[in-house]
């Protein structure tokens, strides 16, 4: 769970406790979404709040409460942090040996020293996280830190067979994963695509067309077809003994083998022989142009930058996007032609309540009500007209009088006999 409110966390955990073996509070997420939502690692300085959350969960839940944390730069502060959680009721602690700022291009190496210090300072089980790329790393981490278990994230994403100590072909893991996805629907296509990008990371650097195809497909069947094409190409390369050479950066195995992904080190500005930054040779106008480009790129997310590369003529500048008037009730953008000057959600509620139409949002409550009333009135008129038609035989007041049609037919028959 990710949470920042003791009561909300407890109520959510109570709903889940009958379906799991433990409740884990994630205090290690460093992503921007966690910063905006004020949870994850961005709570690591609010010890009073965390103590209340863990203590209340430990007292009210029927299953253990566990936590995952990131370390501080100071070993002593990290140890005190772990001891506070243990005292509050945490029954298993996972320690990621990186700080809050170690993420993305600045991920760097995890500190097993911090993890070992925590392990020696608490009496509850401790799991280690960080620097786990091979099975040998698992064994070495346990030996150096003394932890009771090891957790792996990115290592498993690039090689799901990591804990088995083998490196299978990338398509083998992809086929197994897609089979699991088909057995347990529904699964968001974006999740499947993200896993395949991790599995095929090195291979997609070679086969760029498959990378583009993987990014565009819209169905699981299409993803399976991309996997089939990738498998076919890699097997052809294996047969021809091609693609074995290490590409720049040095891969321990051919690109079609599951293997760790090592993040590239951020490039440092170059320094010339005189000790001056090589950028100093550029003119002021050139530097200003480069700064403007860098600033424009920094304002875009990675996904937006990818979209811009695919759609170079599309405008992604936030300042130049069209401005929309706000809904009078909720503040969301209103429909440009809405008869109530509302967004679709608020318009639908108002139109339903007042039995009105809004052509802009495609709402026809009034039209449908009138149509339904007209159909109902037509049915009632039909029933009334049927009840007014006299019935022949029993119950008819004119049953003694001959039917005009019968008389006419008999007369015709009589004339024919004459």
Automatic annotation (TrEMBL):
Segments for region (Disordered): 267-288, 370-418
One Pfam family of this chain: Dus
CDD domains associated with the record: DUS_like_FMN
Keywords from the named record: NAD, NADP
Every DUS-like FMN-binding domain range: 1-235
Basic and acidic residues composition-biased segments: 370-384
Listed SUPFAM superfamilies: FMN-linked oxidoreductases
Descriptive protein name: (Atlantic silverside) hypothetical protein
């Amino acid at each position: 769970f990710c949470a920042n409110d003791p009561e909300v966390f407890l109520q959510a955990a109570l709903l889940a406790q009958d379906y799991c073996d433990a409740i884990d509070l994630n205090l290690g997420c460093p992503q921007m979404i966690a910063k905006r939502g004020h949870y994850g690692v961005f709570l690591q300085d609010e010890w009073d709040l965390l103590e209340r959350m863990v203590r209340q969960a430990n007292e009210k839940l029927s299953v253990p409460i566990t936590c995952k944390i990131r370390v501080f730069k100071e070993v002593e502060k990290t140890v005190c942090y772990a001891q506070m959680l243990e005292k509050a009721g945490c029954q298993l602690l996972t320690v990621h040996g990186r700080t809050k700022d170690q993420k993305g291009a600045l991920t760097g190496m995890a500190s097993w020293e911090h993890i070992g210090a925590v392990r020696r300072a608490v009496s509850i089980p401790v799991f280690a996280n960080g620097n786990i790329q091979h099975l040998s790393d698992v064994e070495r981490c346990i030996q150096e830190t003394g932890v009771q278990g090891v957790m792996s994230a990115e290592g498993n994403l690039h090689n799901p067979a990591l804990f088995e100590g083998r490196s299978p072909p990338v398509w083998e893991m992809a086929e197994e994963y897609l089979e699991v996805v088909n057995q347990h629907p529904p699964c968001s296509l974006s999740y499947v695509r993200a896993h395949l990008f991790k599995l095929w990371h090195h291979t997609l650097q070679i086969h760029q067309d498959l990378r583009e195809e993987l990014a565009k497909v819209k169905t699981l069947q299409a993803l399976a077809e991309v996997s089939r094409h990738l498998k076919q190409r890699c097997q052809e390369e294996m047969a021809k003994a091609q693609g074995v050479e290490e590409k720049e950066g040095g891969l321990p195995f051919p690109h079609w083998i599951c293997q760790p992904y090592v993040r590239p080190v951020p490039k440092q500005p170059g320094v010339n022989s005189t000790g001056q930054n090589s950028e100093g040779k550029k003119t002021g106008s050139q530097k200003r142009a480069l700064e403007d480009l860098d600033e424009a790129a920094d304002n875009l997310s990675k996904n937006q930058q990818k979209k811009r590369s695919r759609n170079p003529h599309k405008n992604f500048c936030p300042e130049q996007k069209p401005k929309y008037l706000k809904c009078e009730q909720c503040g969301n953008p209103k429909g440009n032609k809405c008869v109530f000057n509302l967004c679709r959600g608020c318009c639908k509620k108002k139109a339903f309540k007042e039995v009105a139409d809004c052509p802009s949002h495609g709402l026809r409550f009034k039209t449908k009500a009138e149509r339904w009333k007209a159909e109902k009135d037509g049915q009632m008129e039909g029933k009334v007209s049927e009840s007014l038609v006299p019935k022949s035989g029993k119950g008819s007041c004119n049953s003694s009088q001959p039917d005009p049609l019968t008389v006419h037919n008999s007369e015709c028959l009589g004339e024919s006999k004459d």
